[in-house]
Design goal:
The structure is a single chain. The chain is α/β, with parallel strands linked by helices and about 140 residues long. It folds into 2 domains: about 50 residues, 2-Layer Sandwich (Signal recognition particle alu RNA binding heterodimer, srp9/1), CATH 3.30.720; about 60 residues, 2,3-Dihydroxybiphenyl 1,2-Dioxygenase, domain 1 (Roll), CATH 3.10.180. The chain is built from 3 helices and 8 strands. A 4-stranded mixed β-sheet has the order 1-4-3-2, covered by helices on one side. A hairpin with a 5-residue loop joins strand 3 and strand 4. The protein is globular, with a radius of gyration of 17 Å. The termini are far apart.
């Protein structure tokens, strides 16, 4: 079947990132503020959404009591990226981190200049890892 027919018959596909949260509304406000996007209510009172700049959504939900999702460190992290001129990347990153800290984040690994840009590892208000990256 040609690709156009498959898309027409099955509908379009949207990719999302799903993140369990103790307080989905609060975590949606945190990411909405960092992304300059307005959080939106989701499919239930325990589900919130923030439009992801690359397309799709960041879906924040409170897990069902019958299928809990305990907090845990892991190898996955969200990565938020901005652009700045090469000489100002670290300054832009410091200002962005200050905003994140005001919103309840904490620094896991302090900002540093790398050959590819400036980066810092934070923990969001629910201790999920967050990489903030400023590219030249």
């Amino acid at each position: 079947m040609p690709e156009q027919e498959a898309t027409a018959s099955t509908g379009s596909i949207t990719a999302s990132i799903v993140l369990a949260a103790d307080d989905p509304a609060a975590l949606a406000r945190f990411y909405g503020a960092l992304l300059d996007m307005e959080p939106q209510p989701g499919l239930s009172s325990t589900h919130w959404r923030v439009r992801w700049p690359a397309g799709g959504w960041l879906e924040l939900y409170a897990p069902s009591k019958s299928r809990p999702q305990p907090r845990q460190p892991g190898r996955q992290a969200l990565c938020l990226q901005r652009k700045a001129d090469a000489t100002g990347a670290l300054a832009v990153l410091h200002a962005w981190i200050a905003t994140a800290l005001e919103l309840g984040a904490s620094v896991q690994d302090p900002p540093r200049q790398e050959p590819f840009g400036a980066e810092a590892w934070l923990l969001d208000p629910e201790d999920n890892q967050l990489l903030m990256l400023v590219l030249p």
